[in-house]
Design goal:
Blueprint lengths: L11 H9 L8 H9 L3 H9 L6 H11 L3 H15 L3 H27 L5 H7 L3 H9 L8 H8 L3 H13 L3 E4 L2 E4 L13 H15 L18 H22 L20
Antiparallel strand pairs: 1-2
Helix pairs in contact: 2-3, 4-5, 5-6, 8-10, 9-10
Length: 271
């Protein structure tokens, strides 16, 4: 589903019409939302095209259905409350809160744009779970540049994907352009002496172990323990390093279609 951000709308109904699709682009989302809200599809259309409004309880469920993160959900609630307001003064009250959110987001975006490398405190969160890096890299694949596709691909809850995308955009690692999430201008540099390096390796070793439970011809798993001369062990290490460099050269110009992980372990089996 490719739509504008909720922050680009001033009226919640206009946003929902775009999010749910119009005409031939509906793709059954209105029917799915009706099922989620336990109401008739006709009720959805009546609200979107008429003078009635969704209840706060329904708005809460709509937030979950659309996979809003916390700030998106709050903004959506404020838009709905503004449109439901019975007096001009109350409308102005909600409009002011909406404007404050937009102004704050603008300031944060400008600050992030000026900082190309992500600060250490954000790197700690980035490496706290495997899916931050996975979703970040997946934003280079055109077919995975929206919440729903990412949630399905990684089998993650929609709200987890939404929170991750919020973090990536907020740190400049991701961006939202033309209705799609893409890789941003900021980057993460992880040195060999970083406090996060062990967590990074652990995250992906655990994912490698998890992949053993899924039998697929695309994957390759190889484990062997052997004895050899100390001098030859250095040769093997250098050969592995050259292999990694050669692989990275091929990855650079390769078209972004799927996501793969390489975990290479070469160590002395000694306690």
């Amino acid at each position: 589903m490719t739509i504008k951000s909720v922050f680009e709308y001033k009226e919640y109904k206009r946003y929902l019409i775009a999010a749910l699709g119009v005409g031939k682009k509906r793709s059954g989302l209105r029917a799915k939302l009706a099922l989620h809200l336990n109401c008739q599809t006709a009720h959805i259309s009546q609200v979107l095209n008429g003078q009635t409004h969704f209840s706060p309880e329904q708005a809460y469920k709509i937030n979950a259905f659309l996979g809003h993160d916390r700030e998106e959900g709050h903004f959506f609630f404020l838009m709905m409350n503004k449109d439901r307001a019975g007096t001009k003064d109350l409308q102005e009250y909600y409009l002011q809160q909406l404007s404050e959110i937009l102004n704050r987001r603008s300031i944060i975006k400008n600050r992030v744009t000026a900082t190309r490398e992500v600060p250490a405190e954000h790197q700690t969160r980035y490496y706290s779970a495997w899916y931050y890096l996975a979703i970040h890299m997946a934003l280079s694949v055109p077919e995975l540049q929206n919440k729903e596709a990412l949630a399905k691909y990684f089998r993650l809850p929609l709200n987890v994907v939404a929170e991750t995308l919020e973090f990536l955009v907020g740190t400049g690692l991701g961006d939202f352009r033309d209705g799609r999430y893409v890789i941003g201008s900021s980057h993460v540099h992880l040195g060999h002496d970083s406090d996060n390096i062990n967590k990074h390796h652990s995250n992906w070793r655990l994912q490698a172990m998890d992949s053993l439970t899924r039998i697929t011809p695309k994957d390759l798993h190889y484990s062997v323990v052997f004895s050899l001369a100390q001098e030859d062990s250095e040769k093997l290490k250098e050969r592995i390093i050259e292999m990694i460099k050669a692989n990275l050269k091929d990855v650079g110009p390769s078209k972004e279609e799927v996501l793969f992980c390489t975990c290479v372990d070469f160590f002395e089996v000694k306690r």
